[in-house]
Structures are given as C-alpha cells and as structure tokens.
C-alpha cells in the first residue's frame, strides 16, 4: 500500500507537493494503539484480533473510505516496523534541519 492508494483530493486542480517539484516531501498519516510495556501477549493478541475484525466491517471501511482513509489492521510486529521507520525518518529530518525545541 502506498499513500496514493487512498488519497482523497478535494481540489483536483491544485498541484500536489510532488508535482510542484518536492518529491521527497511526502508523509503518511497512521493511527495505532499502544499498550503498556509488559502487557501479556494473549491480551495483545486479543486486542489485535478484535480491532482487525472491526476494521474489516464493511460499514466501517465504507465510512472511512469516504474520508479518504484506508483502514488496515496489521500485526503488532508490523505496527512496530511502522513506528520504527517513522522515528528514524523524523530523527533524520530533525538532525538535518537542526531543529530544536525552544
């Protein structure tokens, strides 16, 4: 899946950031559920199964598709990969941009 799989464009004549010449200025938005460290694996598996079931309900998928969102249930390991990649990417942006909190 890529970000372009589910992009809703309310202004079709408005050029995208990529079309304006900034191909690296692209980001995804994602949501995830986190649990406290040490949560029993069986509890995590139950949460994951229940959330995936809800995300695959046709009414749920349809509602969020109208908002331009592609809801995907994944495994805890897949979510950790998403979090790790996002952290590494934004760490690089912060370091290269010499960004600091004031």
From TrEMBL:
Signal peptide: none annotated. InterPro entries: BUG (IPR005064), Bug_dom1 (IPR042100). Keywords: Receptor. The keyword GTP-binding does not apply. PANTHER family: BLR1237 PROTEIN, TRICARBOXYLATE-BINDING PROTEIN. Belongs to the UPF0065 (bug) family. This is Tripartite tricarboxylate transporter family receptor. The lineage of its organism: Bacteria, Pseudomonadati, Pseudomonadota, Betaproteobacteria, Burkholderiales.
